[in-house]
Amino acid sequence: MNKIIIITAPSGAGKTTIVKKLLAEMPQLAFSISATTRIARDTEVDGQDYYFLTQEDFHQKIDNNAFAEYEMVYAHKYYGTLKTELQRIWDNNQVPMVDIDVKGALSIKEKYHDAALAIFIAPPTLDTLRVRLSERGTETQASLEERLGKARYELSFSHEFDEIVVNDELERAYVEVKALVQAFLK
Asked: What is the reported pTM?
């Protein structure tokens, strides 16, 4: 059975840091590169961080049923998991590590059922999340409020995940997530 590890969290909850540590320490995992219509940040590389697609290309892939899941996460910004990306990883005898938004995570869990482990990483509080997002220096006041509003919404779905890990201290949260992943892969 081809397995999938799904990690999701509100923006700023520490998901990316935990995923990077898992990938560095567990060679049986491989990062599933998501497709998106958003513009690449200065440090991001197409085909490594994301597959950056035009709106037209993304919609063509929707029409061709090329996605395991996709969502419009922010206004006119689509994200999705390509079926070919999951297959690429399975063909390499690895397990895809899917780092996606809440709705996309639930869509994959619904499609792959027990073959997928869905972990929700929660911030200790929304105030903590506000501080973390502000410290990034990448948010305007408007985008910060949009992300916090989205975080409130996403937190309302946390009970639908297989596991919830509160990231109040990064190393402790990482150890907890790693143990969950190891148990699932046995």
From this structure: 0.87
